Amino acid sequence: MKHAHSEVIEQLGLGILIIDAQFIVRYANPFIENNSKQKSLAGKSLFSLFPELPQVWLRKRVESVLMLDNTTYTNWHQRPRLFDFPSSRPITGSARLMYQSCSIFKLKSAEKDDLVCITVYDSTPTAVTQQRLQNSLKRLDKERNYQVELNRKLEETQSQLVQSEKLAGVGQLAAGVAHEINNPVCFIKSNVECLRDYIGKLQSLIKHYDDLLDASLTPELKVKRDQVRQSLDMEYVQEELPEILDETDDGITRIEGIVGSLKDFARLDSGQWQYADLNEGIQSTLKIVHHELKYKVREVEQDLGELPKVQCIPAQLNQVFLNLLVNAAQAIEKTGSIKVTSCHMPERASVVLTFTDTGCGIPASKLDKIFDPFFTTKAVGKGTGLGLSVSYGIIQSHGGTISVESEPGEGTCFRIELPVEQDNH
Amino acid sequence: MNSPGERDEMRQDALQEILNISMGQAADTLARLINERVHLSIPKLHTVQASSLNAFGKRLLRKPRGTLTRQSFNGLFRGEVLVCFEQGACHAKLANCMGFPDEPAGGRTSELTLELTNLLASACLKGVAEQFEGSLRFGPPSILSTSVTVIDYLERLKPLWKEALFMEISFSVDNLEMSTDLLICVAGQDTDELWSGVDRLLGLEAT
Ligand SMILES: Nc1ncnc2c1ncn2[C@@H]1O[C@H](COP(=O)(O)OP(=O)(O)O)[C@@H](O)[C@H]1O
Ligand SMILES: [Mg+2]
């Protein structure tokens, strides 16, 4: 039986190495001999035979094994190897050295000094499989992340599509309506002008008649005339007439304004693509809206950075600035402040503009509606709900983005990013 | 003759005594190994029903969250040791005491954790085995999870056992900001071997 034991140990596909407390090798089985390409190891020092061994660490481990009479283990996962043995897969492997899982334990011996046994198990097959698995996992993970990103982009594109679809539909409607309204408004307007002219003439005629009559009428007839005038309330009519005409004009101007923004919205008369200084655009727009802002904002704060000329349709962008500034002013109930900034982002080849106000803010529930056509929270006559949807469409056609951040009660910030160059204009 | 109730109480007391003695020895051995003062708490015995892990959780003295390791043992009796290393425990200093180089690379930390599990399990159970005049063999330790409490882990597991004996010990080292909890666990069906060992020591061998 004794013979069988040693035969087993020689044949075993497991390295067995026995050392004493002084780290002198007492026995090494063929597995160790073959892999280390050294013969007759017995009697030699472990650390001179295997200089790759971590001495301090191993001494400590052997000490603890002797003290506790236990087994200590190493795993290829944390410590790929103790011995620099060549890989058991010289042809099909990917690592030069063998992966090993080892155990170290005390041998009770007849001698007065205890012996320590080190076993070396070749974990290369497991390591190879595990690494292949790990690589597949990594690849899967990468693919999954890619898909998540793709999904996110898809959702984003979809929401943009929905938005632009809405805009396109409403755009057609608006173009039609604008056209239909424009014609009658035009002749109403010229008719009102005629009316004003004719009424002026009629009034001077009446004046003329009066002067003539004053000179020729008898007192009784004069009283009669005055009675007729009074019963017709002519004094009031004459006074009221110009006011009525003014109001009518006012109404017409308002209709023209709405038709104009509808037209802008449908972009019936889009301007020309050119390179323009957006800071100039902002400043000229500020001048135009000055009268709208002056009661609520002492001065619009400007922090305009140096910008390259941006390829755009300036008239359209000015329309956007105007919408944002008017909205900002309307959001401020009594007084507040508005700040406009611009800056160049060379690394993104874009410019960023922000319009910030200290107005009422927008509740989260409405944030995703404000760009919808006809969405307004303002009184009839004050808001059309077209400003932001027009702006959205314009920025989109410039290849840019417009976004909003708002804190109800604190204020709102609109952020526009525009590419400096257009890809296909 | 003693009633079953009295006998159970005697057994528990005896086991408690055996554990107390073992922990004293274990603290000594560990201190010599890592050159620091080591504290092991007086072990606390818990009989745990798998159906009420929650109640067990309440009885545990400490329930740290962190790296949970395990190591199986058999021989005299069989079971598993669970070790919970509290999150953020400072291993670096211990690494030096145990002959690891300074650089705390990722793989090294888990190797250190595993070796600590091995040391603690061996040290704590060595004395127990000696008092029973038997021996215990340990399998290689492994990491179960890196951010969990024992109770969380067991609850997720849906254990195979109905009842088990858990011996709770906490381990700390002077000058090191770490405290580690050790549970020696024996499943209900395996406690017979443990108790018959205790009976032998008490001279209560079955007649
Ligand atoms: N700066 C702002 N602060 C608060 N609310 C705003 C602001 N800008 C836009 N809004 C909200 O978005 C709605 C839509 O704006 P807009 O499309 O310009 O239409 P309108 O101004 O005609 O209402 C507004 O009615 C308002 O509720
Ligand atoms: Mg508006």
TrEMBL record, chain A:
InterPro entries: GdpP-like_PAS, HATPase_C_sf, HATPase_dom, His_kinase_dom, HisK_dim/P_dom, HisK_dim/P_sf, Sig_transdc_His_kin-like_C. The lineage of its organism: Bacteria, Pseudomonadati, Pseudomonadota, Gammaproteobacteria, Oceanospirillales. It comes from the Bacteria. One of its GO terms (molecular function) is kinase activity. It comes from Marinobacterium alkalitolerans. SUPFAM superfamilies: ATPase domain of HSP90 chaperone/DNA topoisomerase II/histidine kinase (SSF55874), Homodimeric domain of signal transducing histidine kinase (SSF47384). This is histidine kinase. The keyword Disulfide bond does not apply. Residues 176-422 form the Histidine kinase domain. Keywords: Coiled coil, Kinase, Phosphoprotein, Transferase. It catalyses: ATP + protein L-histidine = ADP + protein N-phospho-L-histidine. Residues 140-167 form a coiled coil. Its EC number is 2.7.13.3. SMART domains: HATPase_c (SM00387), HisKA (SM00388).
Automatic annotation (TrEMBL), chain B:
Keywords: Chemotaxis. It holds the Pfam family CheC. This is Chemotaxis protein CheC. The keyword Membrane does not apply. InterPro entries: CheC (IPR007597), CheC-like_sf (IPR028976), FliN/MopA/SpaO (IPR051469). The keyword Coiled coil does not apply. Transmembrane segments: none annotated. It comes from the Bacteria. The lineage of its organism: Bacteria, Pseudomonadati, Pseudomonadota, Gammaproteobacteria, Oceanospirillales. Residues 10-38 form the CheC-like protein domain.
